[in-house]
């Protein structure tokens, strides 16, 4: 007889499922503002930290929009029922994994070449993007931070001075832009990490490229993407 691993749902997973059910059956319609964390805590009989974890998970998978100081809202455009399958809010992790695997193969190479071939102009561009990432962080501009993140990785490909690699990264731009927000949120949620830490990792990659250390630049990119991949694989195995 094959051994089976039986796991019970965690508190935030139960709450997340219940909130998702309320959304899908129309209690909270697209664009509607959810009750406060305090109100949800009382409604579901759990602590505020459990509510925040549930909301973060649903934000990560496209169901909610959490506005700093403005409350939590149901997304105006909801993920498709087909994509979600009516099950766990982490179902999209599978499709994101495929893109992430391609990124890991591609970007470890582009970062190594960038460290060997980058110009002062390339470094200035990367540095300017990091500055924008920092400004977005300080102003809680989530969209701006995500856009800067996409541009940072594209700029590394450009610095490789390999037109085919640049084109390959460009061909992924749309999908990368569509998923990077989700991968960032899932990483923050699972790793209990912060935007500051994510910015520091990008700065470390920049420094390795600036110092011409191809091996280190490649390894830092790999480590950076491995963390996200580890999170996604954990979610798909739940």
Automatic annotation (TrEMBL):
Domain HTH gntR-type: 9-77
Coiled-coil stretches noted in the UniProt entry, renumbered to this chain: none
Pfam family, one: FCD
Any one GO molecular function term: DNA-binding transcription factor activity
SMART domains reported in the protein's UniProt record: FCD, HTH_GNTR
Top-rank taxon: Bacteria
Keyword terms of this UniProt record: DNA-binding, Transcription, Transcription regulation
PANTHER family: TRANSCRIPTIONAL REGULATOR, GNTR FAMILY, UXU OPERON TRANSCRIPTIONAL REGULATOR
Record protein name field: FadR family transcriptional regulator
Species classification: Bacteria, Bacillati, Bacillota, Bacilli, Bacillales
């Amino acid at each position: 007889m094959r051994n089976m691993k039986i796991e019970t749902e965690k508190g935030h997973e139960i709450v997340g499922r219940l909130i998702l059910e309320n959304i899908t059956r129309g209690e909270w319609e697209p664009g509607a503002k959810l009750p406060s964390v305090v109100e949800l805590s009382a409604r579901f009989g759990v602590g505020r930290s459990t509510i925040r974890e549930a909301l973060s998970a649903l934000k990560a998978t496209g169901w909610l929009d959490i506005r700093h100081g403005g409350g939590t809202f149901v997304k105006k455009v909801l993920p498709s029922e087909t994509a979600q399958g009516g099950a766990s809010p982490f179902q999209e992790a599978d499709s994101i994994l495929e893109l992430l695997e391609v990124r890991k193969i591609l970007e470890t190479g582009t970062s190594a070449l960038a460290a060997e071939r980058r110009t002062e102009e390339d470094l200035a561009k990367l540095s300017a993007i990091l500055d924008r990432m920092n400004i977005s962080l300080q102003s809680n501009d989530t969209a701006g931070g995500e856009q800067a993140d996409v541009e940072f990785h594209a700029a590394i490909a450009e610095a490789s001075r390999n037109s085919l690699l640049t084109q390959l990264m460009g061909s992924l731009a749309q999908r990368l832009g569509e998923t990077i927000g989700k991968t960032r949120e899932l990483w923050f949620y699972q790793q209990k990490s912060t935007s500051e830490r994510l910015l520091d990792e990008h700065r470390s990659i920049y420094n390795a490229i600036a110092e011409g250390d191809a091996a280190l630049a490649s390894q830092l990119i790999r480590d950076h993407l491995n963390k996200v991949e580890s999170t996604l694989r954990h979610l798909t195995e739940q």
